[in-house]
Design a protein that fits this description.
2 copies of one chain form a homodimer. Helix content of chain A is about 30%, strand content about 25%. By secondary structure, chain A is an alpha/beta fold. Chain A folds into 3 domains: about 220 residues, ANL, N-terminal domain (Rossmann fold); about 100 residues, Roll (Luciferase, domain 3); about 90 residues, ANL, C-terminal domain (GMP Synthetase, Chain A, domain 3), CATH 3.30.300.30. In chain A, the strands form 9 sheets. Chain A has a 5-stranded mixed sheet, sandwiched between helices. In chain A, strands 4-3-5-6 form a 4-stranded parallel sheet, with helices on one face. The first copy, chain A, has a 4-stranded antiparallel sheet with strand order 17-18-19-20, covered by helices on one side. In chain A, a hairpin with a 2-residue loop joins strand 1 and strand 2. In chain A, helix 2 packs across helix 3. Chain A is globular. At the A-B interface, helix 1, helix 7, strand 16 and strand 17 of A face helix 1, helix 7, strand 16 and strand 17 of B.
Chain lengths: ~500, ~500
């Protein structure tokens, strides 16, 4: 395995190449790379002594902490799989995760939810965790193939239950490297982990910072004043900040109490730009745009690689291929809508214990993202929306998300959902359920005309039903409820 | 093979993502990515029709040309291996290459040497090559695993004959990506291929430019005036230039006739810096330093990642691990000399048809570079010199290159070589053969003292023999001749 490079290997090299660099800061804890390497070895040894073997799962139920990175790296050293669960979930939701993963070891922070779930042998963060690390003996671990999964992150609930996407060291290292390219990260780089580490958006920058041999600063969760304090104290280069979070941080530093000039980050507002150093990397210039999902390791396409192209998702990462495919697996021409599919170095290894879903998502040798997109004439990609389900009208495929996006672009429309209604001639016809803005008016004919001017005629709704609000499941329409209320059915493949 | 990304895949993605970008410029030839993709498909089809199959070798005997990149990409599409041979070699040397590789197809530029070697079926560059491309039919090729070798580059002659280092698509893509990081390359990047493409130093930037979707400009060989003309005409971002080549280009543009401001490159001299745009990437800041060899894909360590550390080879690429190992495979402590060994994503796949050498070079799961290095206390790496052979004195290992380097640091020494002389007590003792500078004087005792102050006592020569000049084989001392002339022998493992 001369070509293998696991996360554990990256750490082992930094311990030699960067003996004086601070790897981790978390409250009073400061660890150099050799110190982190030694702790990870002891933690891996302690987990092995407790019976954690290759392929076993190790679960973290808690907020951000350096223990998250240590457990991930110890799992890499062991060949085990680490899962930082979403600690904001209810006891029932977390119980599902525990049952689904059947972890060989669990570390937790005390809370009402973890107290309700707690089982014998679980290790409490803090003193118990430190005692565990202290019991581990220095030892050699055999090399682990970097194609083995090392990180599990729960993602969107297809079929009503969440699924743990498995990411290998090879995928995580490749994705981190793509961020090094687009973010132009250099070895002297300090990342503030203030976003949730159970989400790929924060985890990917934590790992890119590890990859380049920088410093990861951990804070339990987003607190604007604490973010200011840490940026100042640790000379932070980048934090997990966008939109309203940036406004909140700028407001917390209104008095100019903290020196945020070490932050080399995106331009946002006059107040913000005056506090930080506006960065010119492709990532920062593009205001962090692109398209991604956990299953591709984070980002699949980067707006920073679009050079002004039309598609707001930008262009693919240098380490992947992207195809826009029709349901039959053929490539759709530029300008037409299809499913965003991908291959390449950053892709996940399937979901844990979901063989049928894995076969479906990787059919024909391409990962099917479940999202719709379009290739613009300049080659850039536009993300349209989740595929979810497809309507078959005549020989044509109609994706509700595409029609909904156009309906919602009408000034009078507050929200919209599109369903397929059984039809003897056409198999299905398109029906839209629309909620208008309180003070606005638009007729059925107005809205159908609006769609017809922007999309192919077969995609326009035959009928529109007006409602006060669209029922939702998370961020997306509750299509089952809509079908039942408005006569939907006959979906292809259903 | 959802994680595979071959060079052919990279091209296929750019054909979709960058339909309007110029991929290749070579004289009057200008190809966009879709045009290059279509030509590569036709070339691969034509080669397949001529019997080139998976694993077969395809040879180029000629100077730089866009055909070099096309043949490499066509071989990637086919699963074949492309070798651009060193066209400066003699007919005998190139005959060895032809015999060694037994290529299934050869393309050549006419010269005295290629006329002497030419066999039936060889394709002449220019019209014959274009006719070959024209015969190929558009078709689908099955996916090729990116772990398969795709490029063969001949390297140093261990054991008296050169060996073809095989590089896979995975290694080349990984190495290209490491350059994207350290050179901070962006999609709008134009590289002038004016160095030899049979050498990894030029090829690695050609492939990094491909990887990021930039433009490769080809010129047959280094001509300062033509380099100026092309930089101006094609708005070139980087060329293969260092040291005296930079001076020659600056001199060729003394009159300021050409606008070289598009070149974002290393600072060198006042005249040069005024013509170009001095670049601030780690690569350019460091004046391109580091340590590398073909077998690691190009660069193993980058001075641009050293952040001012002591070791002139810098720190490892983010995609490899480096260890300094003793002959018994154990790691030597920081500050001590050992062999530079490596693992990781950019490493080669062994030499073509050299099973014994491959086993030797990859023993214990580490690639053994054959070069000596030292880890400095700050973790950076110092390259010392080729290992070549080792002297065993008592229980201690003495590397001639290390002692020679110290001898040559003495102001009176012009050149030095160190051999091992059989010894009943110590197995071998160290003997130095030294050539002094014409006007300088130094005694045997002076030089032994000089070594003793800088190295461990067991490394100092017991005897010094003064000669007028050191016999050489290429750049290194001819140790066989020296042993014979000065009583060397008893080498461990010999």
């Amino acid at each position: 395995m001369i070509h293998s490079l696991s996360l554990s290997d990256v750490l082992a090299d930094h311990a030699r190449s960067r003996p004086q660099v601070t790897a981790v800061v978390d409250g009073a804890v400061r660890l150099t790379y050799p110190e982190l390497d030694a702790r990870v070895t002891r933690l891996a040894a302690a987990l092995r002594a407790r019976g954690v073997a290759k392929g076993d799962r190790v679960l973290w139920l808690g907020q951000n902490a350096h223990a998250v990175l240590e457990l991930l790296l110890a799992c890499s050293r062991l060949g085990a799989v680490f899962c930082p669960a979403n600690w904001r979930q209810s006891a029932d939701e977390l119980r599902f995760v525990v049952d689904d993963l059947s972890p060989a070891a669990v570390a937790y922070e005390p809370s009402d939810v973890t107290q309700a779930l707690r089982q014998e042998g679980w290790v409490q963060a803090g003193e118990e965790y430190e005692s565990l690390v202290a019991t581990g003996q220095e030892q050699e671990f055999p090399q682990v193939d970097d194609a083995e999964p090392v990180l599990a992150l729960y993602t969107a609930a297809f079929d009503g239950r969440p699924n743990a996407a498995l990411l290998s060291s090879a995928a995580l290292v490749a994705h981190a490297t793509s961020l090094l390219v687009v973010r132009q990260m250099e070895p002297v780089f300090t990342f503030l982990n203030n976003g949730p580490l159970f989400h790929v958006g924060t985890m990917m920058f934590c790992l890119a910072t590890l990859q380049i041999g920088g410093t990861n600063v951990f804070t339990p969760a987003f607190d604007p004043e604490e973010v200011c304090r840490l940026i100042d104290a640790e000379r932070v280069t980048q934090a997990f900040l966008f939109g309203g979070m940036i406004d909140a941080v700028a407001k917390a530093n209104e008095s100019g109490k903290y020196d945020l000039s070490s932050l080399r980050f995106v331009a946002h507002s006059a107040a913000w730009d005056g506090m930080i150093t506006v960065d010119d990397s492709p990532w920062c210039r593009s205001k962090m745009g692109g398209y991604g999902q956990t299953e591709v390791g984070g980002m699949l396409t980067f707006l920073g690689l679009a050079e002004g192209g039309a598609g707001f998702a930008g262009r693919p990462s240098p380490l992947v291929q992207v195809r826009i495919l029709a349901p039959d697996g053929t490539e759709v021409p530029a300008g037409e809508t299809g499913e965003i599919c991908a291959r390449g170095k950053t892709l996940f290894s399937g979901y844990f214990a979901r063989p049928d879903l894995n076969a479906e998502k990787s059919k024909n040798g391409w990962h099917h993202t479940g999202d719709l997109g379009r290739r613009e004439p300049d080659g850039t990609i536009t993300f349209i929306g989740p595929r979810l389900r497809m309507i078959k009208s005549g020989a044509e495929n109609v994706y509700p998300a595409e029609v909904e996006r156009v309906l919602k672009s009408h000034p009078a429309v507050a929200d919209a959902a599109v369903i397929g209604v059984p039809d003897e001639t056409w198999h299905q016809t398109v029906k839209a359920i629309v909620a208008l803005k309180p003070a606005e008016k638009a007729s059925e004919a107005d809205l159908i005309d609006h769609v017809r001017t922007l999309l192919a005629a077969y995609k326009k709704p035959r009928h529109i039903t007006f409602v006060d609000s669209i029922p939702k499941r998370g961020f997306t329409p509750d299509y089952d409820a809509l079908d039942e209320a408005h006569g939907g059915g006959n979906y292809p493949g259903a």
